[in-house]
Design brief:
By secondary structure, the protein is α/β, with parallel strands linked by helices. The termini are far apart. The N terminus is likely disordered. Helix 14 runs parallel beside helix 15. The strands form five sheets. It has a six-stranded mixed sheet. It has a five-stranded parallel sheet with strand order 3-2-1-4-5, sandwiched between helices. A three-stranded antiparallel sheet has the order 17-16-18, with helices on both faces. Helix content is 40%, strand content 17%. It is elongated and about 90 Å long.
């Protein structure tokens, strides 16, 4: 009798091994467990149509079942449902064994009765959103800290499974499966790397919050290879994104022409800071934002103009520093059309066959004929568009934490969010000034405060006349600003001068 029982057991085990190998090679299994259910039914249906089996947990299993999709609940695999107040659902040997087993472990997996899981589709509790709430507490953050999701993702990544964590990868994955899984190793590695990066950023958010900022860092994804860095020998170089919701984040600027490099992107970032400070200053103090044109060279403004019309703003920008503006990057908060592109290139250029050239143009919109006119051989004029530039206000300043790498670590500080308020009680006599002087003060502050210190900025009639930046002493900054102003043949009678810090002695003024 005992021998018969043993033979039956061995037969069942052998059948399980055969069944497990068939599941591995024929009917594949996907584990789906998502917090955000939008569109998950379509993804599951596509898998079912290709003969896949679906395993799911709790709420996701209910959603799929109600949609008429055949699904096996994870509780059925483990023999138990969620425990400890739903804190433990998928943290079971059945799930993680199915994700981590190598091909040479299939017999053991079958003996254990665990399914081989080929794909895991997971997203996480909204931890970052909870942390961002004003009323967030340690308890609420802990409650929104996902453990099962990141653990399944990391098990899947280590087990070389198909890991789908970004909803935008679902359609791509289905198409890849239908195409016969071309370049399988590369595809799986890319998804695994992406998943590990998302987990790292998720865990970093928790560490940052619970340490009260004593632990910090940054996780980014490269979105563009650059030819080289600041110098030709600094390779490789790239542009990375942290996928913020900021409409003015650099990754939200669409490159429509050109091949910008490292310095070009730093110029775009710096002049965006100047542009948004100008807009914020006018929005706060006047309730409206004028037409703005900013030209920068190595991150510092060399020409700025504000006006009620687009052409006048460009004219004021062009007369700033006529030498430095040659080959500058330009940003506007209005569309650049063919007429304006011609105006920018030829204004005040006489008796010459060569027009003024620019290294880059950034605007809410660039007309095709304008792009064609402003383009340069060798893709040397980078052209970006971002419609968010149309609607700049006092709320457009960057608010993300500023990190700067230093040898062996990094420095950290809040962003540059101060806005000059001329109605402040600490500014004596500001309310008694005529509006044109108030406007120049706002413009001088916005330009000088976003330039390299030490800075002296000279402004008149809504135009930057001279910007003396990056000097070791403030007197040198004043001398530099005046030198640039005189070089541009500007009349300084009635101009305003802005200093980004105090003069320690009267020789500067």
């Amino acid at each position: 009798m005992l021998l018969k029982v043993r033979r039956i057991v061995l037969f069942v085990q052998f059948f399980c091994v055969l069944e497990q190998h068939e599941v591995k090679t024929m009917n594949k299994t996907a584990l789906i467990s998502v917090y955000t259910k939008d569109g998950i039914e379509d993804f599951a249906r596509d898998l079912i149509a290709m003969g896949w089996n679906i395993i799911s947990s709790g709420g996701t299993a209910n959603v799929l079942s109600e949609a008429g999709i055949k699904v096996t609940d994870t509780a059925k695999l483990s023999g138990r449902g969620a425990i400890l107040g739903h804190r433990v659902v998928t943290l079971t040997p059945e799930i993680h064994g199915g994700l981590l087993a190598d091909d040479n472990m299939l017999d053991e997996l079958a003996e254990l009765g665990f399914p081989y899981i080929d794909l895991v589709c997971v997203d996480f509790y909204p931890l970052m959103e909870e942390i961002a709430k004003n009323k967030a507490t340690l308890k609420s953050v802990i409650n929104k800290t996902d453990i099962g999701g990141p653990t399944m993702v990391r098990s899947g990544a280590k087990g070389r499974r198909i890991v789908v964590i970004d909803p935008s990868d679902r359609v791509k994955t289905i198409e890849w499966l239908k195409d016969g899984e071309p370049e399988r190793d590369t595809f799986i590695t890319e998804l695994a790397a992406k998943a590990e990066g998302i987990v790292a950023d998720y865990c970093l958010s928790s560490a940052r919050y619970q340490s009260d900022g004593n632990i910090d860092g940054m996780v980014g994804t490269k979105i563009r290879d650059l030819k080289y860095g600041e110098n030709a020998y600094q390779t490789p170089a790239g542009l990375y994104t942290t996928y913020t919701d900021d409409p003015l984040a650099i990754d939200k600027f669409e490159l429509v022409e050109g091949n910008p490099g490292y310095i070009n992107f730093t110029d775009v970032d710096r002049m965006l800071q100047t542009m948004t400070h100008i807009a914020a200053g006018f929005d706060l103090n006047t309730g409206s934002v004028p037409c703005i044109a900013v030209a920068v060279k190595h991150g510092n403004a060399c020409g700025v103009g504000i006006a009620s019309t687009q052409k006048e703003a460009l004219r004021k920008m062009l007369i700033g520093d006529p030498l430095a503006i040659f080959g500058a990057y330009v940003m506007t908060n209005f569309t650049i059309n063919e007429e304006l592109s011609y105006f920018m290139s030829w204004y005040k250029i006489k008796n010459s066959d060569a027009c003024r050239i620019f290294d880059g143009i950034v605007a809410p919109k660039l007309k095709k004929k304008a792009c064609k006119f402003l383009s340069r051989t060798g893709d040397r004029c980078g052209m970006f568009v971002n419609q968010a530039l149309w609607t700049l206000t006092k709320h457009s300043l960057g608010t993300g934490i500023v990190l700067r790498q230093v040898r062996g670590g990094f420095l950290k500080q809040p962003n540059y969010t101060y806005i000059l308020n001329l109605s402040s009680e600490t500014l004596e006599g500001a309310n008694d000034l005529p509006q044109n002087i108030r406007d120049d003060i706002i413009l001088g502050w916005a330009v000088g405060s976003t330039s390299n210190s030490n800075t002296i900025s000279i402004v008149k009639d809504g135009a930057l006349q001279g910007n003396g930046v990056g000097r070791q002493d403030r007197v040198g900054g004043a001398v530099s600003a005046l030198s640039i102003t005189h070089r541009g043949k500007h009349d300084t009678n009635g101009s305003i001068a802005y200093s980004d810090s105090f003069f320690p002695f009267p020789d500067g003024p």
